[in-house]
Design a protein that fits this description.
The protein is mainly α. Helix content is about 35%, strand content about 5%. About 0% of the residues are buried.
């Protein structure tokens, strides 16, 4: 009976085009990464004769081994779907890009996280009913500012000393101050996320200028950044111009270069000057590096073919005087 059963199974396998799920092959697998590594040598003869068929069969066997390993894991049913719990990956897959770092929290987000404050979801409507204007106004945006101008057209002053002040101007200045404060806080959050030290108030501290030369350069550049190039700016006590930045700062007095002591130094200085001129982007010479050709002036011929230059000499009346053509006589000295 066993022989008959085995013969029937072999005949059924021949009729069924599907292959068995049992694959006897040594393949390295990492189920956590869903990765299968086949280090076995390829059959060169079969690869040359039936390349596409051979590669499909090889891929099918390796995928079947990986699926068999997945079915060996513990499973659970989630919404009528059987899900397998994958273990932690053991093979480190290469990445084309660096893993993105988590965004740094702002001061308010960090404070809310420490205190357990949960932000409210913005599920409310943008519009809000106003009893004074008797209409729906937005809670934010430019239309809200226009609505507040209609609402606050009159400001009550409780202090007599402030009766002559422009209360609308005071409110506008306070609003601009709040906006500037929010913008400063936003820039501080950006600097904090990029690990840039920013002073709390006032000028930058010594931490931003670890070298005294950098601090003196910053002071010199700030003083010379005026229309008069710092001519009328007051100096600090014992303040001197920074060294080495005369070329970058316009209007600063440069130290006179020493006279070359030998021919070699003079030749080198002239060569450096010529190199700096030729390397510059400005056009110093013509494209053909030649002097412009001056066009010769065309000679003006008179009646007798003599070249005339300048103003014509006065001619006499030759014994006739026509008062209509010539007024007065020859100028006498």
């Amino acid at each position: 009976m066993d022989i008959v059963k085995s013969i029937l199974e072999d005949s059924n396998r021949e009729k069924d085009p599907r292959k068995s799920t049992v694959v006897e092959k040594d393949v390295e697998t990492d189920v956590g990464s869903l990765l299968a590594l086949d280090y076995n040598t390829l059959d060169s003869k079969e690869l040359r004769s039936q390349q596409e068929q051979y590669l499909k069969s090889l891929t099918r066997d390796n995928v079947q081994i990986l699926i068999n390993k997945i079915w060996e894991l513990p499973t659970q049913r989630v919404e009528e779907v059987i899900v397998a719990k994958l273990p932690k990956p053991g093979y480190v897959l290469p990445r084309a890009r660096q893993i993105p770092k988590p965004k740094a929290l702002t001061k308010w987000q960090q404070f809310a996280k420490e205190k357990g404050i949960q932000s409210k979801k913005k599920g409310k409507s943008k519009l809000k009913w106003d009893d004074v204007l008797q209409k729906w106004i937005p809670t934010f945006g430019y239309k809200r500012s226009k609505a507040m101008e209609q609402k606050e057209w009159l400001v009550e002053v409780n202090d007599e000393n402030k009766a002559m002040e422009d209360q609308f101007g005071v409110m506008k200045a306070a609003k601009q101050e709040r906006q500037s404060k929010n913008e400063l806080q936003r820039l501080r959050n950006i600097a904090k996320s990029k690990n840039i030290k920013v002073p709390r108030v006032g000028l930058p501290t010594k931490e931003h200028f670890p070298d005294s030369q950098q601090l003196s350069q910053a002071i010199t550049v700030a003083r010379t950044s005026t229309a008069s190039v710092g001519k009328f700016q007051s100096r600090l006590p014992k303040e001197k111009d920074a060294k080495g930045i005369a070329k970058e700062v316009p209007g600063m007095k440069r130290k006179a270069e020493s006279v070359p002591t030998n021919v070699h130094d003079e030749k080198k200085r002239n060569k450096d000057l010529a190199d700096s001129i030729l390397k510059s982007t400005t056009k110093v010479f013509r494209e053909d590096f030649s002097a412009p050709k001056a066009k010769p002036a065309k000679p003006v011929k008179g009646k007798k073919g003599v070249k005339s230059r300048g103003r014509k000499a006065p001619k006499g009346g030759k014994g006739t005087r026509d008062m209509r053509l010539k007024v007065g006589g020859r100028k006498r000295r």
